[in-house]
Design brief:
This protein is about 35% helix and about 20% strand. It is of the alpha+beta class. Helix 1 packs antiparallel against helix 3. The radius of gyration is 25 Å and the shape is elongated. The N and C termini lie far apart (about 55 Å).
């Protein structure tokens, strides 16, 4: 089974070839190792290759022993995207995100090499195994997609493609939010990047890419990968904002668009995670006088209806995290769902929800359907009584 990896266009990272069998005139010290057993692969060549927009570059190679054991060492210039290739074709490939001093262990067979590598030994090996398991299911469905071509429309084929790939993308997004500075997020980020334009693209992808870029900026501050990730996320956000500005939007969509932003504790909170409750999406900011004046009413209604299935999802347009958190505490906004990307009016959510002033509210029912906008005070209270009495 051929393993395909789509990745962000990272800069070329030069890597000097090195292996336990091949000496080079200016051999750099080994700073990574991959070892283990690949049954039924004796005497096959195993390669570690660096990936870039120019293609793959050999970093190290070795010949697997007759009993399947191997050890391959080499030198990498830093954290980056690599691959482990078995044999001379591209059908047996495992994506790697090696970091200096990594010792990755593989325990598998020739047949299961890129389906179940059973990797261990690094901080990213577990998520590698989980990702490959998901991707293998998607890859196995490729014949179905090929069979659809010619007897189905291009849109039908694309819809089926996206349906089959959704478990991979959902897993990647959740894993990135859970552990944003994990090196394997370089590979996972491909699931969040738009490949066919922004029509139907989930803006939650942009939020997770920004979270990862910020985490990489802190952990890998001297790495070209971190700078490139930050730059490409900026380009994606700019293109997405342009798309929103040039695409007509409904003033009251049937279903509220997904929002995924970081909460006050740094963990992401999805709007969709509140499905099953009536939710007031409250757009506000600490610097907004009318917002602060309205907050006591929101607090009162939250306390009045919270035991009947009502909650608040507060989206702040603050840029100063300290001012945002201080206002939450000062105004007694006791519900747990406070989020912000700290980008002020530049936040994509402004275009996404189509408002130009705050406070702005959107009320959604238990299924996420919009049932009211701009509701405050008495009008909000009457609507909540109507909806929650059913």
């Amino acid at each position: 089974m051929k393993y395909l990896v789509l990745f962000l266009v990272f800069p070329l990272l030069f890597a000097c070839e090195s292996s336990e069998e091949t000496e080079t005139p200016e051999k750099l010290p080994d700073n990574f190792m991959v070892s283990g057993t690949i049954k039924d692969a004796g005497n096959t060549t195993l390669y570690v290759e660096a990936l870039s927009q120019q293609g793959s570059i050999e970093v190290a190679k070795t010949t697997i022993s007759p009993n399947g054991s191997f050890k391959i060492k080499g030198n990498i210039p830093g954290m980056g995207i690599y691959q482990l290739r078995l044999g001379e074709s591209n059908d047996k490939v495992i994506p790697l995100t090696l970091v200096e001093k990594d010792h990755l262990k593989i325990n598998t067979s020739y047949e299961m090499f890129n389906v179940a590598p059973n990797a261990s030994g690094t901080e990213w090996s577990t998520v590698l195994n989980q990702y490959i398991e998901k991707f293998a299911v998607f890859s196995a469905a490729q014949p179905e997609l090929n069979a659809m071509k010619g007897r189905a429309t291009d849109q039908e084929v694309m819809n089926r493609f996206l349906e089959l790939k959704k478990p991979v993308d959902d897993f990647a997004r959740e894993a990135m939010f859970k552990d944003p500075d994990n090196p394997f997020n370089i590979v996972l980020s491909t699931s969040a990047t738009p490949t066919t334009g922004f029509e139907g693209w989930d803006p939650a992808n942009l939020e997770v890419l920004k979270v990862v870029a910020e985490a990489y900026k802190k952990r890998f501050k001297d790495s070209p990968i971190a700078a490139t990730m930050e730059n490409q996320v900026f380009q994606i956000e700019s293109a997405y904002n342009e798309f929103l500005n040039t695409t007509p939007t409904k003033s009251s969509p049937d279903v509220a668009p997904e929002i995924v932003m970081q909460g006050i504790n740094g963990k992401a909170i999805k709007l969709s995670s509140l499905k099953g409750k009536v939710v007031l999406i409250d757009f506000w900011a600490s610097w907004c006088g009318p917002c602060r004046k309205e907050n006591p009413n929101v607090v009162r209604l939250y306390n009045q209806f919270k035991d009947k299935g009502f909650t608040v999802y507060s989206v702040s347009l603050d840029e100063d995290p300290n001012a945002w958190k201080a206002a939450i505490k000062s105004d007694g906004l006791s519900w747990p769902n406070h989020v912000s990307d700290l980008r002020g009016w530049k936040s994509p959510v402004v275009q996404q929800y189509g408002f130009d002033a705050i406070p702005h509210t959107v009320l959604i029912d238990k299924n996420g359907k919009v049932i009211g906008t701009g509701l405050r005070g008495e009008s909000l209270e009457q609507k909540l009584k109507e909806v929650l009495s059913k």
